[in-house]
Amino acid sequence: MQEAGIVLMVSGGGMTYLALRKVLDEAGVQVHLAGSCAEAEKILRALKIPAVLFSDTALPDGTWLDVLSLATQARWRVPVIVVSRVVDINLYISALEYGASDFIVPPFYRQDISHVLMCATQKGAVMPRLAAA
Questions:
Q1: Does residue 19 belong to any structural domain of this protein?
Q2: I need a surface site. Which of 33, 40, 43, 58 has the fewest CB within 10 A?
Q3: Domain with 95 in it: what CATH number?
Q4: Domain membership flag for residue 23
Q5: What percent of the chain clears pLDDT 90, i.e. is strictly above it?
Q6: DSSP sequence for 48-113
Q7: Angular region, 44: left φ>0, alpha ψ -120 to 50, beta rest
Q8: Whole-model pTM?
Q9: What is the count of structural domains for the chain?
C-alpha cells in the first residue's frame, strides 16, 4: 500500500476507539493518536502530509467541534470524520452542517471504512486504499 497520507484519531480511548483502530491497523493504515484537542493541535501543526482525522464526539478538553475548528486551520485540507458510540440523528446532521466529511458509528467494517476514507479525500488530499479483506 502506498503511503500517501495518515490517519489522525482524536480520542480519549474506549471501546469505540479500539474497534476503529483495530480495523485501521489490520488494513495497514498509519494511525497517529491524540488523546485531546491540545495534542491534536500539536500534531496537525507538525504534519507535512495531508491527513484524515477521526474525532470522538467528546474529548477531555473539548468536542468534535473544537477538532473541526483545528482542522480548518491546518496547512492542508484535513477532512474530519466524527465518530460516535451511538446513532444520534441530531448530532449527525450538526456534524455535516458544520463541515465534517462524515459521521460513523460502530460496528466498523474494513469495506465501509475504506469507502468513508475514499469519500473524505476526494477533494484534494490523497489517502491510501485499504487492502481487501
A1: yes
A2: 58
A3: 3.40.50.2300
A4: yes
A5: 66
A6: SS-EEEEEESEETTEEHHHHHHHHHTSSS---EEEE-SS--HHHHHHHHHTT-SEEE-SS--HHHH
A7: alpha
A8: 0.86
A9: 1
16 part of a folded domain: yes
Instruction: Tell which phi-psi region holds residue 24, choosing left (phi > 0), alpha (psi between -120 and 50) or beta.
Output: alpha
Residue 133 in domain: no
- Number of other CB atoms surrounding residue 65 within 10 Å: 18
**Residue 53: all three cell numbers together:** 482525522
- Give yes or no for residue 57 having a pLDDT over 70: yes
The residue with greater pLDDT, 96 or 74, is 96
User: Distances in Å between the alpha carbon of 28 and those of 15, 34, 52?
Assistant: 20, 19, 15
Whether the CB-CB separation of 51 and 8 falls below 8 Å is answered with: yes
pLDDT of residue 123: 58
